[in-house]
Design brief:
Chain lengths: 550, 91
């Protein structure tokens, strides 16, 4: 006989789970009790949002399902932002929450919230377990659903009486895995016709390329077809960002060349992307002359925002392999390369202050294998624009949700997923405060994570929008009373240092990357620094503001 | 545009709310609803009247089809106009 809690732990072990990020409390106590006798590694974070975002970083880095756990009520609600983050970025995740005993459910009991109901719009699926015997099946299904097709978060809500009940149910549950099908032959034929007829085709790569394990197939197709490539924020690394065929990131903070190439295209081959508004700008003016071939694992993405002239559903690898390659695109390739060269970023900004784009470029050149997580704001866009990525898993960013506070927990998850990886997180002085407590987790487990804190003493991206689009009416964006971040880090047991001058940058990078354990570089920059270029909200991607034009 | 959708869902906790919640969240108003239990099959058959000014009911059907508690979806009355997608208002 086992308790439901022991059965849960056995079922998780059967699923191959090794690491769980979590935080205990009343309703989940039976599970924490069962953990004592388990070989699972439980990582104690300092806030449940840290747990779910670490599980997310773990999943993105490893390609495996991330697991997090929290108690009922406030523990469960603290997971919500992270679950939404995983939902919008299609990250495979299982979140386990304790619940008050079944008999008390629906009575407004202490620490009772309907987390099953609250998370419905942001989960791929969810379970409320009513019978102890169901635990192995629910765990099996949850892991299967989280990972299959287009991945996403799955919630398992476990009432305390269920985890306390004894049962003789075996922990085994076999899920048959159903591989994705290949595309419809008629659609393939239509797509091939369009690709052969196109003079100015562009491959538009999204996060689906990495998620669908289609990176090799994608690169093979790029090589064989010679079609120029642009990527979304999540698509970065689908093709190494240094590859000559890579034109750049498209969209609001993309580069001019990528947007120009897309606007001029007569065919967009969208691979695992979803025409997100940050990528497309004003939709009715996005790639106005282009037909669309859409490759995706998710049928619900087809023609959701932009009509697809051909839809290749299913396994991206099979779809890519079916596309024609013998194309003659010399003139178009030359034009795209010329655009790329003309719009090449210049790193020789005037002044003595630290120029973040250059600093980030130098960091990623110093260690091309770095896994870089970031928070949300200007610094996030600078990471996307100026760091090099050889593979998608190197770049951990909260793309769909844009959740400040993602960077540090994601880095923690990445480090647990790959203890040998060199992990860097780039944060802002606003964002870092959203999960600063996780510095304690870095210290507790002695994770050698490097932190670059870009401090502009303000909520930079919001300040930039107020400057550009609200007539410089600055409202609640000043953070000049920030704490001494080096002292804060030190109090968590993490050494740090401050950098203010451009001349100090090279030495600082060296010191940061070559330190043994964790280290924080507190980089102070001009509060009025802005991210360029930028497509103003509501405009088409033809309209990109540059520094001079603002 | 008015549509009628027939949904068969499993009789499991949350299935009905999940389906109806998705319909409203994706920009459709429910104008009528009729539910019949199929006891032996542990299923519920829903006939739902829907209205939306500008959203594609085909896309909605595919979104609903993805729900794990949904057994089948069909459109009984299908009034899809030529796909008309409005500019995203998000900023
Ligand atoms: C949780 C959360 N709250 C609010 C926002 C809105 N927001 C987007 S960027 C930003 C400013 C971020 O400031 P900071 O972390 O210092 O980065 P910077 O833009 O200065 O580089 C804010 C408040 C958000 N994205 N996430």
């Amino acid at each position: 006989m086992m308790t439901g809690a022991q059965l849960l732990i056995r079922a998780l072990e059967q699923e191959g789970v090794e690491t769980i990020f979590g935080y205990p409390g009343g309703a989940i106590m039976p599970v924490y009790d069962a953990l004592v006798d388990s070989r699972l590694d439980h990582i104690l974070v300092r806030h449940e949002q840290g747990a779910v975002m670490a599980a997310d970083g773990y999943a993105r880095t490893s390609g495996r399902v991330g697991v997090c756990m929290a108690t009922s009520g406030p523990g469960a609600t603290n997971l919500i932002t992270g679950i939404a983050n995983a939902f919008l970025d299609s990250v495979p995740l299982v979140a386990i929450t304790g619940q008050v005993p079944t008999a008390l459910m629906g009575t407004d009991a202490f620490q009772e919230v309907d987390i099953f109901g609250m998370t419905m719009p942001i989960v791929k699926h969810s379970f409320l377990v009513r019978r102890v015997e169901d635990i192995p099946r629910v765990v099996g299904e949850a892991f299967h659903i989280a990972a299959e097709g287009r991945p996403g978060p799955v919630l398992i809500d476990l009432p305390k009486d269920i985890t306390n009940t004894s049962t003789s149910q075996p922990p085994l549950f076999e899920m048959k895995s159903n591989d994705l099908d290949g595309p419809d032959p008629d659609e393939v034929e239509a797509a091939c016709r369009m690709i052969r007829a196109a003079r100015q085709p562009v491959l538009y790569a999204g996060g689906g390329v990495g998620i669908g394990r289609a990176v090799d197939a994608f690169r093979e197709y790029v090589r064989a077809s010679g079609i120029p490539v642009v990527a979304t924020l999540k698509g970065l690394g689908a093709l190494p960002t240094r590859d000559p065929a890579f034109i750049g990131m498209l969209g609001m903070h993309g580069n001019q060349a990528a947007n120009e190439v897309v606007q001029a295209a007569d065919l967009l081959i969208c691979v695992g992307a979803r025409f997100d508004d940050r990528a497309t700008g004003r939709l009715d003016g996005f790639a106005p002359r282009a037909k669309v071939v859409h490759l995706d694992a998710d049928p619900a993405e087809i023609s959701k925002l932009r009509h697809a002239d051909a839809a290749l559903l299913g396994d991206l690898r099979q779809s890519l392999a079916a596309l024609p390659t013998d194309l003659s695109l010399d003139a178009w390739q030359a034009w795209c390369s010329e655009r790329k060269q003309t719009r090449e970023w210049r790193y020789d900004a005037p002044g003595k202050g630290i120029y973040v784009p250059h600093m980030l470029r130098q960091i990623s050149e110093a260690d091309p294998e770095l896994v870089v997580s970031c928070d949300v704001g200007q610094h996030q866009m600078w990471v996307a624009q100026h760091c090099h990525f050889k593979r998608p898993e190197q770049h951990l960013t909260s793309a769909g949700l844009g959740a400040m506070g993602y960077g540090i927990p994601a880095a923690i998850g990445a480090q647990f997923a790959d203890p040998a990886a060199r992990v860097l997180t780039v944060s802002g002085d606003g964002s870092i405060m959203m999960n600063i407590q996780e510095l304690a987790t870095i210290n507790r487990y002695q994770l050698p994570i490097k932190i670059v804190l870009v401090d502009n003493a303000s909520l930079g991206l919001v300040r930039q929008w107020q400057q550009l689009f609200h007539g410089e009416r600055y409202s609640e964006v000043d953070l000049s009373d920030n704490p001494d971040f080096v002292a804060v880090a030190k109090s968590f047991g993490i050494p740090g240092f401050r950098v203010e001058q451009r001349t100090e940058v090279a030495g600082a990078i060296d010191r940061l990357l070559n330190s043994e354990g964790p280290m924080l570089a507190h980089v102070c920059i001009d509060p009025m620094s802005n991210v360029w270029p930028l497509v103003p909200p509501g405009q088409t991607n033809d309209v990109m503001l540059e520094e001079q034009s603002a | 545009m008015n549509h009628t959708m027939k949904l068969t869902i499993c009789r499991v906790e949350g299935a009905m709310i999940r389906a109806l919640g998705l319909i409203e969240r994706r920009g459709f108003a429910v104008t009528s609803i009729n539910a019949t239990e199929n006891e032996p099959a542990q299923q519920l058959e829903l006939i739902i009247g829907l209205r939306s000014a500008d959203r594609s009911v085909d896309v909605l059907a595919r979104q609903i089809e993805k729900l794990f508690d949904v057994c089948s979806v069909s459109l009984l009355q299908h009034n899809e106009s030529a796909l008309e997608l409005k500019e995203s208002m998000a900023c």
